[in-house]
């Protein structure tokens, strides 16, 4: 278990990289930190690891206060963005290194290194040195080295960022299975929302050193707490449209839609609908956004359609082959939407 209490990090020069973080990561939990570049993900991980000293606040690992402990005494295995592996050692020796520190006999640690290497498709490379490896291969060596020992927690900072798309998917599935098997508490940094959704038991979405929302992938995907989270999660971004309450109806981009309870005409409202949760109609209807098909993007099994409406663009996803040609007048019918008041999710 990792507990963070009111953790703040202000760098010399004044950047507030962490701003009062409170969080408990449960035993065996796979926890993802997600957020745009510069939001404080690496700083948070480095602070947990002891590589940065917090300006204030407290860190506990398995109920021991480690705030003042050096990195080596925290029993953590890390893979960082720059995956430093030892240039003068071959792959086997690199992977087995933490076991050597723990004084595991040579035969045993070589066997363990070979086993972990096989699971990361590194068997052919065991005798090479880092300079003879590609970036993605080096990253897998760093990952293998972390999992060769059995620490209190794994800290991963974008450990898959240098892998090509296919290898990244394979490594992701492998990591998830391995983490389940070992049941080691894991904090995983990524700026890839799909990776966070796929891997994590829970996700924290960060912005400017704070956690904007913490929840399960389902909660974060279906009920993003703010428009920031809403725009960040989803393979195609949610449509966020200005809305206005008039009587019992919402006026949104040329459509008249039923309004939820608890709103007033003075509210600053945003109507959020995912591209996947809209249908396309070729006949006019009042509860749909009118426009003209302006761009078609091939997504393989589906097509991303951009509808140009007066004042805004709306995107929706239709099954491949169902897209009308560019220039066709069309109506986007929302099936499932969220309302934000002052950028915050409105719960009637
Ligand atoms: N050593 C440092 N000194 C001063 N400012 C720093 C230092 N390290 C990071 N920062 C600043 O702290 C903020 C958070 O940086 P951090 O590296 O944690 O972001 P990140 O979320 O990991 O971003 P990325 O996705 O680009 O890796 C940024 O504004 C960054 O410029
Ligand atoms: Mg980073």
CATH class of the largest domain: Alpha Beta
Count of alpha and pi helical runs: 8
Please identify the structural class as seen in this structure: alpha+beta
CATH-defined topology of the largest domain = Rossmann fold
Shape: globular
Report the mean per-residue pLDDT as an integer.
93
**Low-confidence sequence ranges:** none
Count the strands? 21
Secondary-structure map:
Layout: E1 2-10, E2 16-25, E3 30-34, H1 41-49, E4 56-61, E5 64-65, E6 76-79, H2 91-101, H3 106-119, H4 135-148, E7 153-157, H5 165-182, E8 185-190, H6 193-199, E9 202-207, E10 210-215, H7 217-222, H8 227-232, E11 239-246, E12 249-252, E13 255-258, E14 269-273, E15 278-281, E16 289-298, E17 302-309, E18 312-319, E19 329-334, E20 338-341, E21 344-345
Helix pairs in contact: 2-3, 2-4, 3-4
Pfam family, one: ABC_tran
Organism: Nonomuraea jiangxiensis
Keywords: ATP-binding, Cell membrane, Membrane, Nucleotide-binding, Sugar transport, Translocase, Transport
